[in-house]
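Bug #2210: token dump truncated for DUF3810 domain-containing protein?
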Amino acid sequence: MKNRRYYWFWVLFLPVQWVLVQYLSSKPIFVERFYSNGIYLYISESFRFLLGGLPFSFGDLFYLVLTYKVVQFLFVSFKIRRVRLLKILGILSHFYFAFHLFWGFNYLRPPISESLQLKSTKYSTEELIAFTTKLALKVNDLQLEITSNDSVKVTIPYSKKELYKMTHNGYTKMDIYGINSSYSFSSIKHSIISLPLSYMGFSGYINPFTGEAQVNYNTPQISYPSTSCHEVAHQLGYAAENEANFIGVLAAIHNDDLYFQYSGYYLALRYALNDLYRNDKESYEAIIKTIHKGVIKNIIESQKHWRKYNNPFEPLFKSIFNQYLKANHQKSGIKSYNFMVGILLNFNKEFDSFFKD
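Reproduced locally. Full output below:
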């Protein structure tokens, strides 16, 4: 009887939670002040303090156990031919509550373009061409500085665990832009489920229930620094994918290490080139011809890597993630990743330090 009352409470609390989330979605400044720059900072730091020292991903282990429990529950329900709807809804209400309290409310904060006081995130094709050209020149310069030969691809000399330790460096220089970059008790880890993530087409994710930054161990080496920076951005409360992409790139290029800088500019160039290809193929082809052979080798290597994991189910996984993003107030869904270019380009107009020497 007590169990029924308990689950009834959580079932009835579910619509209350939903209404609260919808209400707070119209109060982004409130969310920014009291949650993202308030309670969340303590929640995030506590998780990193408690779990950061573990040599494995507690969050991945949690998901594996949860998957087992769900399968077991469905098997038993099928066997006895009875579905305990009250219990299912009650448990879902628990997860909905924990998701938003521990991380999910960050989806409701104002766009970073407002805190950076950017006049716009839109851009013309001409501006995109000029920006992509600058990126290509910067990536060429870094590639040549690292390898001393424009035909040699960049190979990162550090282990992946060393890269995790180096990730924080770039974030120490972000306060000048008004970006919250206070990061103590690092918690960046290899994902136990890296192989499934590869087949789903993901290079990493933030676990909202444990605050751990999970990096797909199979991610191409050249992208590893910028991917780690991206996941730390999520840990710092930047939930939107375009914003985590932007901050990840910014943190990588402000890192003292040349390989991090290369990885950050390289990622920005890839996104800019993709945008340019959709808007002006002739200019895209012209810029591609100016890029060093060593950089092209890095691009081809990455493309070949992800091609190995192509499978018929990847579009399904992407579709599910797309709906997840839309349900969390990212109207453009998975396409929002590409919106980073608009923030980067307009950020470059306002600040002189993006193409830093």
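Output looks complete on our side. The CA atoms of residues 275 and 338 lie 8 Å apart. Marking as cannot-reproduce; reopen if the truncation happens again.
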